Amino acid sequence: AFTLIEILIVVILLGILASVVVPQFVDSADTVNEGKALTDISTLNSVVEHYRVKNGAYPTGVYAVAAETLSAADFIQEAPSAPSGYTYSYNATTGRFSQVKN
Q1: pLDDT at 26 over 80
Q2: pTM for the complete prediction?
Q3: Transmembrane segments in this chain: where (predicted)?
Q4: Rounded mean pLDDT of the chain?
Q5: By Cβ atoms counted within 10 A, which residue in 12, 23, 44, 46 is the most buried?
């Protein structure tokens, strides 16, 4: 049988181990979300330039309207949704998409 001291030592060691490991998983999730956001924005900016070349102007409106315009014109199948912690925006004057970290 184990003594109370031995059990407490094991519990404390497990707590210390968890406090070291858990933040690494959180950081890797943030890195994945940032990578997806950058890839989505790069893709959208390429697509909007192709749209401008074909139609002579950038799509108008905010992100949702511009993304729907690109989708309706068969430039993209579906507008990408921003990963957790990010929002996407669109500037109709410059024709550029951007991401904002919340």
Answers
A1: no
A2: 0.69
A3: 7-26
A4: 88
A5: 44
